[in-house]
Amino acid sequence: MRIAEITLQTDRLHEMKQFYSVVLEFPIEEETTESFTVQAGQSRLIFQQSFSSKGFYHFAFTIPANQLEEAGQWVQRKGISLYTKDNKNQYFFEDWNATAFYFYDPQGNLVEFIAHHALQNAAQSPFGAHSMIRISEIGLPLYQFEEGLARICEDFSLQVWRGGSKQFAGVGDEEGLFILIDMTRPWFPDGRMPVVAPVKVVIEGKANHFVELSGLPYHLGSATVH
C-alpha cells in the first residue's frame, strides 16, 4: 500500500508551514490563505486551517534503511528534540523489522521517521529533506475497533500486517499502513490517549474509491497516480 497524500487540520497554520517548509525543508507544492501542501518524497502532506483543532495526529515518513542515525542527527541539528524515554530515542520493532524515532511538530502531532530494514532503499548521499521516501503511516483511532478494522480491510482489500492485537493493528504493508488503534489504548511511545480528528487519506489504487467510517471524520480513498 502506498499513501499518495494525507490532509490534516491545524489551528497553527503559519507555525506549521514554517516548521515543515523552513525547518524540515519540505518543498511547498501549493499554498493558500487556508492551507498548504508540502512534498514528502512520493507523498503529499496537506494542512488545512481549523479554528477548533484541539487534537493531534500520528503519522510517519519512511526514510532510507541505512540512514536512521544520520536522520536523527539531522533533525536534532534543526533544534528539534527527539522523544526520549528511559534514555532511549530509537525503537526497534521486531515484528516489522524496522527502527524508528519520534518528535513533535508545533501542533503536538506525533511525527515518526521509520527505517524498514527489509526495503531495498539504502541511500549514499547525505541525509536531507530530499531523502524522504514517502508518508508510510497514518493513525486512525477507532471507537469500534473490530468493526472499523474489518471495514477497512474489506473495502481496500488489505490485511493486518505482521502482528496486531484487539486494540492495535497496522493494515497494509511496509510501504504504507493505516495504523488502527482503539480509543482506550495509549499511543506508543509517549502514552497519550488517542484523539479523533478529521483526516483525509488517499492511497494509490483504483480511481474514485472512497470510504467513510460511521461516526468518524475520516475520508479514506484511493486514486490512480501518474
TrEMBL record:
Domain VOC: 2-116
Protein name: Glyoxalase
Pfam family, one: Glyoxalase
PROSITE patterns in UniProt: VOC (PS51819)
